[in-house]
């Protein structure tokens, strides 16, 4: 067990080898979830002019210091319109939310504190000077950075882009990820089963979904046989992709060829085999210019776990994200958890829920790495550290949500 790489070290190696990809320009509608590769600045002051925050009357504050005050209504300002009216002593302009404040006025009285009477308005309550007036530039000044480079675009940032009149923005491009399963026994979806020993693939599709979820562009390259020459031919296409993922063929079997081919293909192997359970036999290497190769284990749960722990952060980091890991929280364990061998750090699939102000966690009863039900019926990994044989009901545990 000496040569098993600890997870922290493996992650450090992977992330050291990630460089954010080049930028590309996308329309605002396609920008959700992407990371800005430029500072976005405001085209104007926001608001661009002093305007009303309420429907009511624009007045001179001097005129409403004493209430009730009776003022002559000299006209009306709606949002987007507005005649050239000037509010002079003893007068008011009817105004709507968002309309410019007429010259001479400095305060807006909301309509609910007024009454009208033969072309006059009676103000019944006094307000502070400047009340209900939104000032030019009070949110943003022209030229100010409103979204900095490196920030992820959420719906709010999309709105901000529109507000500063940016239809197109520069973001980091998404990585293209090739996905290849290996194994003579593996059948694709819809292929006829001719022998009971054949195994229907899940990995191509689990990994496809995981790549999409991480923001990458997946390319399902199907299934390669356990024939070194053929496998090598297919794997020559690695250069078309930013990341290449294989599943299977990285363990101790005589037909586990992936591990022997990688060096022939010019992949510089950085580690093989991790101190984690499941997903011990993970192979990682780099090739070309900052391209990453992940040889994931064939067992369906192992492949998925290895992806979530190592490939997910790499895909995120390539797109310029600062937050590259899945969310971790602390939960209360609802039942004892025991294991015989505590050599590796375990990622036990579990169900986590929020109740009475706390997260709670219940491990799934079947934890073998061929059992996809353990993922389908779970929403988190419970972390059981190296050297820990037992976790007690009621104690706090660390969980990674997925
Ligand atoms: N003597 C040893 N044997 C094994 C060890 C070991 O340390 N010593 N490690 C075990 C562990 S842990 C794992 S994980 C597996 C990983 O093996 P490989 O990555 O070489 O994968 P294969 O042998 O090709 O397949 C393993 C298993 O997964 C099934 N499989 C493969 N591809 C798919 C797919 N696309 N979809 C669904 N299922 C797939 C395959 O049929 C096998 O059942 O090695 C252990 N052995
Ligand atoms: O690491 Mo294997 O992935 O334990 O089954």
From TrEMBL:
<dbReference type="InterPro" id="IPR036425">
    <property type="entry name" value="MoaB/Mog-like_dom_sf"/>
</dbReference>
<keyword id="KW-0479">Metal-binding</keyword>
<dbReference type="GO" id="GO:0005829">
    <property type="term" value="C:cytosol"/>
</dbReference>
<dbReference type="Pfam" id="PF00994">
    <property type="entry name" value="MoCF_biosynth"/>
</dbReference>
<dbReference type="InterPro" id="IPR005111">
    <property type="entry name" value="MoeA_C_domain_IV"/>
</dbReference>
<dbReference type="GO" id="GO:0046872">
    <property type="term" value="F:metal ion binding"/>
</dbReference>
<keyword id="KW-0500">Molybdenum</keyword>
<keyword id="KW-0501">Molybdenum cofactor biosynthesis</keyword>
<dbReference type="InterPro" id="IPR036688">
    <property type="entry name" value="MoeA_C_domain_IV_sf"/>
</dbReference>
<dbReference type="GO" id="GO:0005737">
    <property type="term" value="C:cytoplasm"/>
</dbReference>
<dbReference type="InterPro" id="IPR036135">
    <property type="entry name" value="MoeA_linker/N_sf"/>
</dbReference>
<keyword id="KW-0808">Transferase</keyword>
<dbReference type="InterPro" id="IPR038987">
    <property type="entry name" value="MoeA-like"/>
</dbReference>
<comment type="pathway">
    <text>Cofactor biosynthesis; molybdopterin biosynthesis.</text>
</comment>
<dbReference type="InterPro" id="IPR005110">
    <property type="entry name" value="MoeA_linker/N"/>
</dbReference>
<keyword id="KW-0460">Magnesium</keyword>
<dbReference type="InterPro" id="IPR001453">
    <property type="entry name" value="MoaB/Mog_dom"/>
</dbReference>
<dbReference type="GO" id="GO:0006777">
    <property type="term" value="P:Mo-molybdopterin cofactor biosynthetic process"/>
</dbReference>
<dbReference type="Pfam" id="PF03453">
    <property type="entry name" value="MoeA_N"/>
</dbReference>
<dbReference type="GO" id="GO:0061599">
    <property type="term" value="F:molybdopterin molybdotransferase activity"/>
</dbReference>
<comment type="function">
    <text>Catalyzes the insertion of molybdate into adenylated molybdopterin with the concomitant release of AMP.</text>
</comment>
<protein>
    <recommendedName>
        <fullName>Molybdopterin molybdenumtransferase</fullName>
        <ecNumber>2.10.1.1</ecNumber>
    </recommendedName>
</protein>
<comment type="similarity">
    <text>Belongs to the MoeA family.</text>
</comment>
<dbReference type="Pfam" id="PF03454">
    <property type="entry name" value="MoeA_C"/>
</dbReference>
<feature type="domain" description="MoaB/Mog">
    <location>
        <begin position="178"/>
        <end position="317"/>
    </location>
</feature>
């Amino acid at each position: 067990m000496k040569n098993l790489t600890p997870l922290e070290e493996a992650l450090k190696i992977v992330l050291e080898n990630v460089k954010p990809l080049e930028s590309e320009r996308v329309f605002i509608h396609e920008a959700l979830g992407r990371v800005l590769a430029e500072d976005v600045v405001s085209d104007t002051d926001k608001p661009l002019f002093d305007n009303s925050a309420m429907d009511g009357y624009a007045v001179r504050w001097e005129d409403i210091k004493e209430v009730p005050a009776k003022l002559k209504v000299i006209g009306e300002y709606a949002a987007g319109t507005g005649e050239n009216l000037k509010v002079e002593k003893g007068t008011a302009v009817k105004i709507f939310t968002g309309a410019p404040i007429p010259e001479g006025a400095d305060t807006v009285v909301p309509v609910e504190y007024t009454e009208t009477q033969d072309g006059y308005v009676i103000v019944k309550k006094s307000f502070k000077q400047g009340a209900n007036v939104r000032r030019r530039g009070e949110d943003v000044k022209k030229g100010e950075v409103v979204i900095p480079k490196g920030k992820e675009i959420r719906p709010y940032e999309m709105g901000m882009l529109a507000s500063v009149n940016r239809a197109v923005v520069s973001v980091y491009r998404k990585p293209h990820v090739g996905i290849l399963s290996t194994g003579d026994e593996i059948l694709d979806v819809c292929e006829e089963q001719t022998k009971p020993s054949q195994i229907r693939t899940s990995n191509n599709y689990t990994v496809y979904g995981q790549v999409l979820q991480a923001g990458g562009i997946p390319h399902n390259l199907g299934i390669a046989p356990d024939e070194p020459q053929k496998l090598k031919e297919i794997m020559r296409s690695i250069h078309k992709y930013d990341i290449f993922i294989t599943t299977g063929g990285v363990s101790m079997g005589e037909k586990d060829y992936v591990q022997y081919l990688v060096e022939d293909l010019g992949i510089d192997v950085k580690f093989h085999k991790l101190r984690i359970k499941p997903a011990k036999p993970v192979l990682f290497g780099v090739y070309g210019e900052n391209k990453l190769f992940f040889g994931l284990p064939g067992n369906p749960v192992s492949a998925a776990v290895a992806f979530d722990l190592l490939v997910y952060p790499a895909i995120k980091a390539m797109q310029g994200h600062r937050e590259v890991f899945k969310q971790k929280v602390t939960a209360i364990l609802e039942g004892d958890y025991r294991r015989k061998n505590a050599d590796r750090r375990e990622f036990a699939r579990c169900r986590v829920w929020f109740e009475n102000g706390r997260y709670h966690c219940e491990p799934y009863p079947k934890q073998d790495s061929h059992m996809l039900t353990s993922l389908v019926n779970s929403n988190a990994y419970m972390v059981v550290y190296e050297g820990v044989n037992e976790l007690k009901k009621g104690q706090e545990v660390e969980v990674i949500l997925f």
